[in-house]
Amino acid sequence: MALLVTIPASNYCEKARWALTLAKISFREEQHAPMFHMMSTIPKRGRSVPLIKTPDATFKSSDEIMAWCAKTLPSLHSPSNAIEKELYFDNEFGPHARRYSYFMVFSLNLAKPILFNPIAHTWEHTFATSLFPVTKALVIKGMKIDQEGSDRSWIIIQKFFDQVSELLSDAPIGTRFICGDTFSSADISFCSHASIIILPPQSRFISPYIDIEKLPTIYYERIQQLRATRAGQFVMYCFANLYPQSPFNTAKL
């Protein structure tokens, strides 16, 4: 069985997990805290997550994993521009979604349960929680997570929601997708990255730890603003209707 190495709340890991499950590829998920994931990825000749190790190969990014899944489920890449849009969202939208989300959960002291609850009752949990101030500082420095960066990312996030809203046109939600009539890798990419911002309730690794009604007004209003767009409605629809609901097979160290 394939082994998927993740940081559970990562938007890129969500994308890989969604593709694997949709393609009905059996896998076991090995979950880690940030930085601690490298104990697993480096021996597998990788560094970042998601990474998946199969008996025959190792895929070291969400787009490599998606391409592997598309061999089993060709519809993921069947629209002619699906790969282009997928990579566009991965490279230009995903990093801003991640920076904005990290800044929110760090500044509101919500990060610990999101990052560490999935690995509860493990030796890694003990070390990761004790080293949280160090991990937090490294993540903030590595991803340039600060108020100024979050503000810049928010502007770009809004532009992406506007772009996708335009692509979806005025067709009823659920009848048209980003690349046309087929649910593809582009949709999974955008929805996965957007999920850590607008928090659909089906998202397993962030939404359970955040009560949006109790967020500061600025974050609550921004979530409602994006959810009200056609792109936001689309993300909520995809999570409610197209997001795999079966439990994942997880491994803890």
Secondary-structure topology with pairs:
Layout: E1 2-6, H1 11-22, E2 27-31, H2 38-41, E3 51-53, E4 58-59, H3 62-72, H4 82-107, H5 111-116, H6 123-130, H7 132-143, H8 147-168, H9 185-198, H10 217-227, H11 230-241, E5 250-251
Parallel strand pairs: 1-2, 2-5
Antiparallel strand pairs: 1-3, 3-4
Helix pairs in contact: 1-3, 1-9, 4-8, 4-9, 8-11, 9-11
GO molecular function: transferase activity
Domain GST N-terminal: 4-68
Protein name: Glutathione S-transferase
Could you name the key traits of this structure?
transferase activity, Glutathione S-transferase, 11 helices, alpha/beta, Glutaredoxin, 253 residues, globular, single chain, Thioredoxin-like_sf, five-stranded mixed beta sheet
Walk me through what this model shows.
The protein is α/β, with parallel strands linked by helices. The chain folds into two domains: 2-74 and 247-251, 3-Layer(aba) Sandwich (Glutaredoxin), CATH 3.40.30.10; 82-241. The chain contains eleven helices and five strands; from the N terminus they run βαβαββαααααααααβ. The chain has helices spanning 11-22, 38-41, 62-72, 82-107, 111-116, 123-130, 132-143, 147-168, 185-198, 217-227, 230-241; strands at 2-6, 27-31, 51-53, 58-59, 250-251. It has a five-stranded mixed beta sheet. β1 (2-6), α1 (11-22) and β2 form a beta-alpha-beta unit. The radius of gyration is 17 Å and the shape is globular. The mean pLDDT is 96.
